[in-house]
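User: Could you go from structure to sequence for me? I need the amino acid at each position, not a summary. Structure tokens:
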């Protein structure tokens, strides 16, 4: 099974696959790193906001890399889009005030709405390729500021190996954990002689699935709970049923 997520995060997914008896092949299709240009004003003012919203574990990681040892006496209220993001914050002793029931931006905006007003200042910690959905929805409810703390780029070096795996039919399934991995995959196979009819495609959630469908990639597995464990469990059931 092909693991397409960024190198530093691929291990956890691979270990879960191994527990189910699968053989993971790690081929990161994206690279993630600290943003090259960061708003220095926000570096000193982030703690003055009413709310800080984290939409990914990467956002948590690079936010703390940026702020370093800065530890204000009081934190703003904190929202996390999902359990893994919340746990990454809690490991750093940050109290998470809000997690939506569904781990997507739309659910987070809906859950936050009763807690916001037009003069509420919200800091949205994100990556350069993050969807605009959350910002657009929150901007109708509060004063929202974006802070791009990390950048996602396509790993073009992975293309030759990916094409080889597909042409030799060495892969039974491909796992996608973000829209950016899907975009990178589609970019890599564009114009190449590859057949995906023998490959099972698994997406972590509805946004990633819709990205794949929009790019003409069929999706066979997408769990109701948008986590890696749920995706692998459903992928296992898919193969067990022999579909």
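Assistant: Here is the amino acid at each position, in order:
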């Amino acid at each position: 099974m092909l693991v397409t997520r960024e190198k530093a995060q691929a291990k956890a997914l691979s270990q879960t696959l191994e527990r189910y008896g699968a053989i993971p092949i790690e081929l990161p299709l994206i690279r993630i790193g600290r943003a090259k240009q960061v708003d220095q004003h926000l570096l000193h003012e982030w703690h003055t906001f009413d709310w800080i919203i984290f939409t990914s574990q990467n956002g948590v990681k690079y936010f703390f890399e940026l702020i370093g040892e800065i530890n204000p006496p009081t934190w703003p209220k904190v929202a996390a889009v999902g359990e893994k993001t919340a746990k990454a914050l809690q490991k750093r002793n940050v109290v998470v005030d809000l997690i939506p029931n569904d781990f997507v931006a739309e659910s987070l905006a809906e859950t936050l709405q009763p807690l916001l007003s037009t003069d509420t200042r919200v800091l949205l910690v994100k990556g350069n390729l993050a969807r605009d959905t959350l910002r657009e929805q929150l901007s109708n409810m509060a004063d929202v500021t974006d802070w791009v703390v990390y950048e996602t780029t396509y790993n073009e070096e992975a293309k030759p190996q990916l094409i080889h795996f597909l042409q030799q039919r060495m892969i039974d399934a491909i796992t996608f954990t973000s829209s950016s991995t899907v975009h990178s995959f589609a970019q890599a196979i564009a114009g190449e002689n590859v057949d995906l009819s023998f490959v099972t495609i698994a997406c972590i959630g509805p946004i990633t699935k819709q990205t794949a469908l929009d790019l003409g990639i069929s999706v066979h597995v997408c769990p109701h709970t948008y986590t890696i464990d749920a995706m692998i469990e459903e992928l296992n059931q898919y193969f067990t049923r022999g579909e």
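One structural detail worth keeping in mind: The domain at 33-152 is CATH 3.40.50.10090 (Rossmann fold).
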